[in-house]
Amino acid sequence: MMKRDECFRILARHIGEAALVASYSSAVEWIDVAPRALNYLSIGAMGLDSSHGLGLALGRPDRRVVVLQGDGSLLMNLGSLVTIAAAAPKNLVHLVAQNDTYEANGSQPTPHPKVDFAGIARSSGYAASYDFSDLRIFEQQVAHVLEQQGPVFATLHIEPTKPLKYDYPSLYDPQKRAAFKAAWRS
Amino acid sequence: MDARIESADTAARELHGGGIIAALKASGIEYVLAVPDIVTSSGLLAPIARDKGFRLIRVCKEDECVGIASGLSYADKRALILIQYTGFLDSLNAIRGVAVEYKQPICMMVGLLGHDPEKAPRASPRYGVRIIEPILDAMGVAHHLVGVDVDIGKIQPAIERAYRESEPVALLIGRRPQAS
Q: What is the DSSP letter of B118?
């Protein structure tokens, strides 16, 4: 089991010029670790992170897109795994931070713990899928995961954390979307 | 009835998929994001699936389309969401959050299953259809009824406006389009 912030710090060292799509707890922790214009915050309709990521990846096949989704969010949009696999964007990496908890809504448990998201992604048709629960192994393999031909999926098994501070006005800020748009079109 | 008048009357009550597809192309639509809908299945979705001028993305659930279309818009790629009104209702939170509150150019073409095309949607025999326009009004989403061929002229201006102003629009398909 890994700590999410440690995991994200390693990811941040490899993210480069990729767009990173995140929502709720993943977004809050990611922007603390790696504030950047190419962060695309998918707040307001939980579950759509993976669909936003697919749209971004299809729109710019020359650029890399990384989706950093919580497990509660993916559970709300499991069908997107099938849609993404069928659309087969080579430039999409789909990471899921799994702690079996809806952290943004009072740290309530998800309906069933230990869902095998990587297995579902594999059987849906992703080009590759991984499970990481050891930080050292994640650090060794993250560059390969990010550079591989997609769609690539990886579950990051993380510990539940203390409640985060959700600054929703900042997360919703239209200037962040405008900054992303400018960076994404450059 | 005079045969010519009857023929003209019948023509005025027809809706052709070919005309809708031409309007979509003229509007710069490149991606079609769809869940099959029996109203538009044979007259629109089937020919779109065969048309190399579009990239069709078949999704599992309609709200996915809202996220995909939003993502595409950041690269100036235009998309049409082709769904049934039941899927529209199922996607209301995505439309509220992404299309309305984030002011994204989300263009929806919504089949009105069970609607009597001779009636206005608000007077439809189907409850689910009757509530569509009031819901769109409450959400502040522009909408246009495409029930006969003459209505096809509404499509391109509606899509152009949606992308120019970065706002959603719903095109309501009130009659099963003919495959032509």
A: T
Residue A107 pLDDT more than 90?
A: no
* pLDDT 10s digits, A9-54: 999 999 999 999 998 888 889 999 999 999 999 777 899 999 999 9
pLDDT per residue over B63-82, tens digit each? 999 999 999 999 999 999 99
Question: Would you say residue B95 lies in a domain?
Answer: yes
SS3 B112: coil
Q: Which residues in chain B are contacts of A48 at CB distance < 8 A?
A: 63-64, 66-67, 94, 98
Backbone angles phi, psi at A93, to 5 degrees: -115, 125
Spell out the CATH class of A4-185: alpha beta
Q: How many domains does chain B have?
A: 1
Strands annotated E in chain A: 19-22, 39-41, 65-70, 92-98, 101-102, 108-109, 128-132, 152-157
Residue B167 located in a structural domain: yes
Is the minimum CB–CB distance between B119 and chain A shorter than 8 Å?
Answer: no
ipTM of the complex: 0.95
Q: Does A119 touch chain B (CB under 8 A)?
A: no
State the nearest Cα–Cα gap between A136 and chain B, in angstroms. 33
Domain of B164, in residue numbers: 15-173
Whether B149 maps to a domain, the answer reads yes
CB A77 within 8 A of CB A120: no
Q: How far apart are the CA of B13 and the nearest CA of chain A, in angstroms?
A: 37
C-beta atoms of B94 and A48 within 8 A: yes
B residues 72-101 near A, CB within 8 Å? 72-77, 79, 93-94, 96-98, 101
**Could you tell me if residue B2 is inside a domain?**
no
CA-based nearest residue in chain B for residue A84: B59
Report the CATH number at residue B166.
Answer: 3.40.50.970
